[in-house]
Amino acid sequence: MGRVVVEVMPKPEILDPQGKAVVGALPRLGFTQFSGVRQGKRFELEVDGEVTPEILAAAREAATTLLSNPVIEDVVSVTDASAEVAEPVNA
């Protein structure tokens, strides 16, 4: 089974109240390294079989027509999850 990951973020000119709340809370929790936060969305689309270029193209189309609001959001990536190299959080 394959998986496509779609990431969507608010456009830079759009206010991000959730990001502002997080950036305000970080220093109170001792995380003073960060000066800004933008919060977005991540979708994981499962497919039967391998992820092909045709499936990635269909995922891009779905991302721009259904998974994002093009007025206020940008689709920042559409990737094959098996090609991702993730760092473990508990390393």
Automatic annotation (TrEMBL):
Q: In which pathway does it act?
A: Purine metabolism; IMP biosynthesis via de novo pathway; 5-amino-1-(5-phospho-D-ribosyl)imidazole from N(2)-formyl-N(1)-(5-phospho-D-ribosyl)glycinamide: step 1/2
What keywords sit in the KW lines? ATP-binding, Cytoplasm, Ligase, Nucleotide-binding, Purine biosynthesis
**Which InterPro entries does UniProt cross-reference here?**
PurS, PurS-like_sf
Lineage, top-rank taxon, reads Bacteria
Q: Name one Pfam family in it.
A: PurS
Task: Give the UniProt subcellular location, in the record's own words.
Answer: Cytoplasm
Can you tell me where the transmembrane regions are? none
What Gene Ontology terms describe what this protein does at the molecular function level? Answer: ATP binding; phosphoribosylformylglycinamidine synthase activity
Question: By its UniProt entry, which PANTHER family does this protein fall under?
Answer: PHOSPHORIBOSYLFORMYLGLYCINAMIDINE SYNTHASE SUBUNIT PURS (PTHR34696)
Function recorded in the entry: Part of the phosphoribosylformylglycinamidine synthase complex involved in the purines biosynthetic pathway. Catalyzes the ATP-dependent conversion of formylglycinamide ribonucleotide (FGAR) and glutamine to yield formylglycinamidine ribonucleotide (FGAM) and glutamate. The FGAM synthase complex is composed of three subunits. PurQ produces an ammonia molecule by converting glutamine to glutamate. PurL transfers the ammonia molecule to FGAR to form FGAM in an ATP-dependent manner.
Q: Which family does it belong to?
A: Belongs to the PurS family.
Q: How does it assemble?
A: Part of the FGAM synthase complex composed of 1 PurL, 1 PurQ and 2 PurS subunits.
The identity of this protein, by name, is Phosphoribosylformylglycinamidine synthase subunit PurS
Q: Which organism is it from?
A: Promicromonospora citrea
Upper lineage: Bacteria, Bacillati, Actinomycetota, Actinomycetes, Micrococcales
- Its gene? purS
